[in-house]
Structures are given as C-alpha cells and as structure tokens.
Amino acid sequence: MGIIVQKFGGTSVGTVDRIQNVANRVIEEKNRGNDVVVVVSAMGKTTDQLVGMAKEITPSPDKREMDMLLTTGEQVTISLLAMALNSKGHPSVSFTGWQAGIKTEPVHGNARILDIDTGAIKSELDRGKIVIVAGFQGMTEDGSITTLGRGGSDTTAVALAAALKADKCDIYTDVTGVFTSDPRYIKNARKLYSVSYDEMLELANLGAGVLHPRAVEFAKNYGLPLEVRSSLEKEAGTLIEEEVKMEQNLVVRGVAFEDDITRVTILGLPNSLTGLSTIFSALAKNHINVDIIIQSMTEAQTTNLSFSIKNEDLTETVKVLEKHREQLNYDRIEWESGLAKVSIVGSGMISNPGVAAEMFEVLSANEIQVKMVSTSEIKVSAVIENSKMIDAVDALHNSFKLSVSAVKA
Ligand code: ASP
Ligand code: MG
Question: What residues are paired with 248 via a beta bridge?
C-alpha cells in the first residue's frame, strides 16, 4: 500500500456528471488499497469566465484581487467532489491550497511553491480519508492568497506527490496521453508510451499543452514517475520517467508548435559590457518571458539584437525598452508579430548528427522561410510565419516518421 496522487483537469470535472465519474475513478484507486490524494482544477472554463468578468470591470485588474477571484473556481470543485465521495460511502475531506499547507513566494498570478507542510493531509489520510486539494493555489508567509500561473494545478499535484513521497502521480485529462504532436491539428499523431522528463520538459515548454512545465521540472527533480492518462477511458496513458526505451528507434519523438510569437529587434545597440544584462533584467523584472535570443555583430561599435516574446507581451516590452532608451543608446526598435515556433524534440538527437539538416531541408522543400533558430541537446526550434505553422509541423511529423501509418506493429 502506498500513496497515489491523482489530478483531474477542468474538462474532467466540467459537469456534475463528470465529477461523479471522477469520484468513481478515485474510489477505484482507493479500493486498490492505496491512500489517495486528489487535486482538481476549476470546472470546465470557469477560470476563463472569471478572468472575463474581471476584465469587464477593468483591463488591468488588481493582481491580489485577481488571485482572490480565481481561487474560488477550484474551491467549487473540491467541495462537490468531497460531497460525491461522501455520498458514495467513501469518507473524504476537501482542503484549499493553504489548508493543505502549500506555501508560496509572494508573487500574485505566478507564484512558485516554497514549501508544503503535509501535516494536515497526513493526519486525514491516517484516519482513512480521501483528501481532496484545490489545485493552482497557495498562500504566502503573511497570509495572502496566491495562484501558481495558468495550468498550475498540475504543479500542485506533482509538488504534493513529492512532499508526500507518493509512489506515483497520475494526471487525468481529456486526452489519452502525450502524443507525437497535437492530434487536434495533426491527424496522424499517435500516443507515445513513454517520454523522458527532459523530452517532456521541452514538449511542455514548447506548447504541447498537456502538462504545466513546472510540474515536469518538479517531477524530474524528485524522480517522481508521472502518468498522463484519460479520465474517461481506461487505457494506459503515457509514462514520464527518467529512462525511456527508444520506440522504433525514433530519433525525434515529437513535433511541438506554438503561435502568437513576436520577434523584437534592437538595432544599433552600442557594444558594451552591460547592454545585454540591462535589457534582459529590465524585461525579467517586468515578468516578460524571453525565448530565443540572437545577437549579431554587424559593425565594430554596435550590434543588433533579436529576441522572441509572446505577442501579448509586445506593448509592455516596447515600453520597457523605451524607458531604458537613454541608458542603452540604441538606434531603433523593430518588431514582427504573427510568427510561430515549430520544434522537433528527441533524446536520440544527442548521438545522431544530421537532424537539424533534415529539418531545414524539409522546411525549405515546403518553401517555408526560417526567421530564427535555437537548439538544445535534444531540440531544434525554428521560428516561421504563423500561416505556415501547421504545414511545417505536418511535413516534419511525416519526415521524421512519427505518423501512425509510419509505425510498424
Ligand atoms: N484552473 C486553472 C486554469 O485554468 C488552473 C488549472 O486548471 O490548472 O489555469
Ligand atoms: Mg492543464
């Protein structure tokens, strides 16, 4: 007998019927003899609706009040699920993030978990109860309610599993696992039986969308096995763990993509020791996430610097750069929106040369212009036009033999 943490996402708890279904899945796990801790998201699109209401009042709602508002979503689900379990004869108790002992840094909207005091959860488990915890929320040292960033319930689940030394963390969702690409857009995408933490980190960061990247980071740090699986179907999902067998010797295991990217270029930036640090610390202070960075030495005195951000951060980025204009002394800023990033990911790349070459051949054969490139040991990303994104993913997915039809039984 061990401890299992189960997490159910918004769609899985989207209606009262679905909550009853979740209760049954929880009971099955409990009946296997395990202690069960359940983490849930807000029902369906609740969080989006709450954000919408706030935006009807003001375009830039107070961050503290926003957290106060958004954390109500998860509280609806925990109480309903506890009622469902209790009425099915399985004693359970619901906890908010703070009742569950989740302490975060004092950042509204995107706080990191600092520590979890598992005392309350453990004593309820010892009484034989099923413990249900609201995802996505915590509390600061001085008692302010915080949220962990959109999609943060995954992180709650993994962090709790690590703190409780759980045997496993199952992430139940509306897909049956992690796919070679997003099956909503790529018809031939197929489910992977396993991926490594590093591959999943790249896939999560690159917009595969199934898991919150910080959840994967946490799981990797604690060597905690994760499984992504369906809340409606019983089939096995995708296991995320350290060592993964090469499936059909695939060098590339997935093609991820993400749109709404803007490339910002600073032209004529004087070469100095502090230019880059000034720019990127100013952006970081304003919580602007910068992705690909390219610096080119054009002339002896000045350099051009390009970096990519999300479209939604453009106004703020320009504001920050303009604020530092005198200090940085650059010529001008340009930007191009409507871009997308397409990435191939696979640990097999480390020992197989020619993967990037094949990617660029495929893109050029499809007349797709590459605007920025970045690589890691297990990933190659190319920034291209939004309008070519799906074509590019499709072509890469086929070329790297990821399609259903490409797999020999
Ligand atoms: N309800 C939150 C969101 O929609 C957290 C989560 O579902 O993980 O982002
Ligand atoms: Mg999610």
Answer: none
Torsion on CA atoms 197, 159, 207, 321, rounded to nearest 10: -120
Centre of ligand 1 from the C-alpha of residue 210, in Å: 12
Q: Two tokens at 92?
A: 């359970």
Task: Give the global pTM.
Answer: 0.84
Distance, in Å, from the CA atom of 409 to the CA atom of 404, rounded to the nearest integer, reads: 10
263 and 308 in contact (C-beta within 8 Å)? yes
CA end-to-end span of the chain, whole Å? 36
Give pLDDT tens digits for 10-61: 999 999 999 999 999 999 999 999 999 999 999 999 999 999 999 999 999 9
3-state SS assignment for residue 100: coil
CB distance 345 to 192 below 8 Å: no
Q: Which residue ranges make up the annotated binding site for substrate?
A: 47, 74
248: left (phi over 0), alpha (psi -120 to 50) or beta: left
What confidence tens digit (pLDDT) does each residue in 178-197 have? 999 988 899 899 899 889 99
DSSP secondary structure code for residue 277 in this structure = H
18 is written with which tokens? 């679905």
Residue among 13, 39, 41, 133 whose CB has most ligand 1 atoms within 8 A, to mutate: 41
Beta bridge partners of 38: 6, 132
Q: Are strands 145-147 and 137-139 parallel, antiparallel or unpaired?
A: antiparallel
Structure tokens at 207: 């917009």
CA 84 – CA 82 distance, rounded (Å): 5
Distance (Å) from CA 152 to ligand 1 centroid: 6
Q: Whose CA is nearest to atom 5 of ligand 1?
A: 151
Q: For 3-174, give the CATH class.
A: alpha beta
Residue nearest to atom 9 of ligand 1 (CA): 150
Ligand 1 centroid, distance to 190 Cα (angstroms): 26
User: Considering only CA atoms, which residue is closest to atom 8 of ligand 1?
Assistant: 151
Domain coordinates in residue numbering, the chain: 3-174
Q: Residue for token digits 């600073």?
A: 266
